[in-house]
Amino acid sequence: MHVASLSPDVCEAHARCWARIQDHLGSEQGQLDLASILVRKFRWTRDYAERAVEEYRRFCFLAACSGHPVSPSAEVDEVWHLHLQYTRDYWERFCPQVLGTPLHHEPGGRNTSQDRMFREQYAQTMASYQQCFGPPPEAFWPGTVRRFDAAPRFRAVDTERVIVLRRPHLSPLRMAAAASLIGVLVLLAGMPDAFALSAEPLDWNGPAFLKLYAFLFGVALFGGRWLSRSPGDAHGTNAASLSPYDVAYLAGGPRRVMDAAIAVLMARGAAQWEPSSRTLQISDPVPGLPAPLDAIAQHLRTTPDPERAARTVEGVLSPLRQNLIRRGLMLDDEAMRSQARRAALPSFIVFALGVAKIGVGLARDRPVGFLVLMSIVILFVGVYYLRKGWRVTRAGDKVVRETRLLHASAARAPRTQDMAIAVALLGTAAMAGTAYAAYHEARLPQRDSGSTDSGGGSYSDSGSSGSDSSGGDSGGDSGGSSGCGGCGGGGGGD
């Protein structure tokens, strides 16, 4: 049976269902090759089409065996639409013989309540997916906001009249790497001339020295960034051993912890956001709140304005911070300052070299304007590294990355019970499209581009989405299943 990609925790009946789905869709002996049709219809690559069909298989398995209504991503929905067109295969063979239950397609977009229902179903589908198959691939299972965006992503076009080009995608890291590579190649192209010069760089002519200075500039820039982060020692800490508030502190600092706590309080009904006054109304003390949620709730009760509360919440979170320092995931004040000095040192050395060469150039009546500009820039870089101060160690970053993988579905499509970890990883962007979106929208003017509301980065002393696909919103509900354990229990009907 083809069950390699399925969690070993599922029951035998569900494993047999998964094997039947694998055999029916896309196998060499299958009666319907959906991947080939998708390649012809959408001009997808063969690999992408086969991956889309694989995600459709997994969606069908969840529909039959998860025990709750499911909702697909836009890409999976396109495969589902295609399969539905082959009515004899879908209704006479696939549903009764493979799934063992009817699987109906319910179009969405009719009203707000239905849209909310599909969002909740999509989040639950993502959670069940992670339980059964591991983290959902973001290329096929984007976050809730992007998934239910109003703009359709798939359109039918006449390829005889128009040319369809693939949208280029370069991450900032790849763009920086490409720019660095180009810069190094340009510098290397001019280096042969340098070998014929004096061993004393201050005696080099202007063009040759500028090439050397540009190279050292890059070394100081990237070397300083590397030196700014302490390796740390996680002392055996892994993602599973951290609370959402630990993760929030590492990913976004005290403000992120407070946002995560506010999300939990609102989800529990213990807090309500008042848009008119831009304050939080905290209920009477809620018994049984874990630390630091209890302390934050008390802090917000006395300071209901989140902006004011954020400026003083760090003192409330001192025990949380000290625990992270003991575990090697963060630096204390003195260690952070020492690390910042090491990070700034290369930039200051390069700046001193530039100042010396400027003095030589002025003494010889040579133009030094461009060198002055570069020296000023590298001085600002050194000051930035000296003042920035990254508190989170590389060990802390590693644990945050592991947490993103462990909670991939919760971060992209959070359920109510996932709000703490989702906000910890993404900031208030995780609230977009949920019942708590008003708080996120209120935070945007102050922190629209700040790291508190972004998914990446880590906490530093100078400052601290869900990313989400369109297409027809749709939900699926199965008529029943075997009702055994694994992947969320028995089948659910509508």
UniProtKB/TrEMBL annotation:
Keywords associated with the record: Membrane, Transmembrane, Transmembrane helix
Stretches that traverse the bilayer: 175-196, 208-227, 343-362, 368-386, 419-439
Region (Disordered) residue spans: 446-494
Compositional bias ranges of the Low complexity kind: 459-471
Biased segments, Gly residues type: 472-494
Protein name: Uncharacterized protein (TIGR04222 family)
